[in-house]
Amino acid sequence: MRVKLILAIFILIWVIVIVRVFSLAVESNSYYKNLSYSNTMRTVKIAPVRGEIVDRNNKPIAINKLGFKIQLHPHLLSKRNLDTFNEEIKVLVELLPSLDSRRLIKNYKKKDSYYNHNYIDIVQFISYEEIMPVYSILNLRKNIKIIPAPKRYYPYGKVASHIIGYVARANRKDIKKDKLLQLIGHTGKTGIEKYYNSYLQGMEGERKIKVNANNQEIEELSYKKPIEDKKLVLNIDIELQKYISTLFKDNSGAVIVMDINGSILSASSFPEYDLNIFVSGMSHSMYNKLANSLEHPFTNKLIHGLYPPGSSVKIGLGLIYISNIEKNYSVNCKSSFPLGKRVFRCWKKKGHGKTGITKAIRESCDDFFYKGGVKIGIKKMSEGLSSYGLGKKTGVDLPNEFIGVVPSREWKMRKYNLPWYMGETANTSIGQGDFLVTPIQIANLTALMATGKLPTPHFVKQIGDKVVKVNLKEPLTKKELNHLPIIQNAMKQVCYHPKGTASRHVKSCKIKIAGKTGTAQVVKIKQDIEKRRLEHEISYYNRSHAWFTTYGPYKNPQYIVSVIVEHGGHGGLAAGEKVSKIYNKLLELGYIK
Known about the structure:
Layout: H1 2-27, H2 29-40, E1 41-46, E2 53-54, E3 60-65, E4 67-72, H3 82-95, H4 101-111, E5 120-127, H5 128-131, H6 135-139, E6 144-148, E7 151-153, H7 161-164, E8 167-169, H8 172-177, H9 181-184, E9 186-188, H10 191-195, H11 197-201, E10 205-211, E11 217-224, E12 232-234, H12 238-247, E13 253-259, E14 264-270, H13 276-280, H14 284-291, H15 301-304, H16 314-324, E15 330-333, E16 336-339, E17 342-345, E18 353-356, H17 357-362, H18 366-387, H19 409-416, H20 422-429, H21 439-451, E19 454-455, E20 460-463, E21 466-467, E22 472-473, H22 478-496, E23 514-520, E24 545-552, E25 559-565, H23 571-588
Parallel strand pairs: 2-12
Antiparallel strand pairs: 1-10, 2-3, 3-7, 4-5, 4-6, 8-9, 10-11, 12-20, 13-14, 13-25, 15-18, 16-17, 19-22, 20-21, 23-24, 24-25
Helix pairs in contact: 12-23, 16-18, 16-22, 18-20
């Protein structure tokens, strides 16, 4: 019995050994074969070069500056290799004095580990000019690699900064959304760089190589070229953009120059800032200075600036009034309009007398719009303005466009859970109260008044070989289209009638234009104050914003020029000369024949 037990144990042990040998030799063969292959074969991802952005005349406005990154062999921090590591750092700092040894060591330690067999980036970018005198010396050192690494560069600095946007280092959130950024390292953060990021960044390439036991490349097995250098052509004319920047160097606000089909020839938010500081990095003090500025240089006021439209919206409301009441509708402006327990006053102390639509727009009579608004009601006003593109996105190709506010009963109930009052209708009728718009919306409204068609504003002209299609909507009713010439004539009189609100300020303009001024109050003015202080008597940040939105030439509309000058006071005075100079520049550059 004892012999049988020993024999059984002996047989069991041999069975276990045979099963294990079979498992290792046959079943695990595929696993170890793949493991062996991965130890000798390596896939190296190739980062694509970001595409350039150029203006309509092919002038580069976002390019890749030639430079290099410096890599160091892994596993040099062990006791055996520490002297080698220190020697390489010493050589780098001696040959390239701009480098900081402490930062180099810190960058290396972040990535060095037992499991990492790839060379480690210790310098992300160094310029071509700086490295070329010592390139051959460094290239001979077996532990150092010099790899081409382009860096985003904006040759025009701060010009068109809010449109172009900038590229900066990708964070964890960015990488989670797009795994390619783990390879590329940088992504578009704002503006066109962000909106068209997936196109501009291209797609990765790939090399399959054979390496030896020391992780040294001995053979290239295959190569897949990255999809890169995808050019983006804008409608922007950078020369016009530069010129407009000089006109607004001392102002805050925004300006838009747009073809009536929606192609944006120039657009700026002021003040501007140098895009290159975000690519290279900036000090905390510099960032805090810009971020805390009362002029808000980081805000793209074209699409994120929310302002009361003031009288600039009267062109849209005027069309709604005469289309819902009658085209000859008029009021007797006595400068005050009692409504409930309040008195709503016109800006002109003695009133405008008998006033129809043309005079009301030409001289910006508040009383006409108070009474017209109360007559048709907030429902028709808000529905009409919404159909004209206010209170919704224009569809412009910039990220995170704001929609603004067109007040209505429903809006107030949703937001505040409060009823609507007639006094709010009066406030809305002159573009005040809770009414908020963006400059791009006012430019679009002006295009609608000029042509009867509502465009989709767009900065990009061509994506690769594909030309961007123009998108025009026709929101006006037949009645509104029939009455549109009345509004257009009133807008012309704003600029050329002796009593027009802009007539004294566009005399230098070399072509005939039509427009509407607006004064958007920043601080509420009590309606019981009969004598109001002049804008220049008010402290700067309490002064009204100045609007002037126009189209030209009057008889053959081609371009929209819309301007808002923050705390500029009266629209015609603050913006009239600027608008005139922009049209003259369009004439000079050949855009207007």
